[in-house]
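Tokens in:
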């Protein structure tokens, strides 16, 4: 999130950040967003009494309040560790992007770096993708490859992948903002 906001602030990405929504009131990103002059909203998920769809309706209400609609908006997930309801995904189809610390479709879900090391993968990396109804399975926008070293730990591999995440996530947002991305038959085409 910070890399994206800083790229926007420095005019590298022609988009206006409307709001940062967090499901945790103590999320580090909230202070960063406020420091960079971006609106913040919190919808606590811990102890939330409704369904996943009810929670996502609250998100939709906030997005609408800030002018982020399914026709003009982009929803970027960054550290938002909740599964989004199918209704929300359908409403914002091809307008929700996420980053994953693996070369999808390999190692979806949690503990991707651990999975890569345990499977003896020679390369890992990160993937920015559109969100669809399944976990980490939407059309891939951009990927970065990171070589796995023999002495890598989960922590050392994670650090190198994170560096690449900070590069490719803003790049993907920039491609979207410049209308360079189309999804055709489940594949992302970059013009």
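Residues out:
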């Amino acid at each position: 999130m910070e890399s994206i906001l800083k790229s926007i602030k420095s005019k590298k990405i022609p988009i206006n950040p409307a709001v940062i929504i967090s499901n945790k009131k103590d999320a580090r990103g909230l202070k960063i967003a406020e420091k960079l002059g971006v609106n913040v909203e919190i919808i606590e998920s811990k102890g939330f009494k409704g369904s996943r769809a009810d929670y996502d309706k609250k998100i939709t209400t906030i997005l609408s309040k800030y002018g982020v609609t399914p026709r003009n908006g982009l929803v970027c997930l960054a550290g938002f560790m909740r599964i989004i309801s199918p209704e929300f995904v359908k409403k914002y189809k091809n307008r929700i992007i996420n980053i994953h610390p693996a070369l999808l479709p390999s190692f979806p879900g949690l503990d991707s770096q651990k999975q890569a090391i345990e499977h003896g993968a020679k390369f890992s990396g990160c993937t920015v993708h559109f969100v669809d109804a399944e976990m980490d399975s939407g059309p891939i926008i951009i990927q970065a490859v990171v070589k796995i070293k023999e002495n890598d730990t989960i922590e050392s591999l994670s650090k190198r992948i994170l560096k690449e995440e900070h590069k490719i996530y803003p790049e993907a947002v920039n491609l979207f903002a410049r209308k360079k991305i189309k999804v055709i038959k489940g594949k992302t085409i970059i013009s």
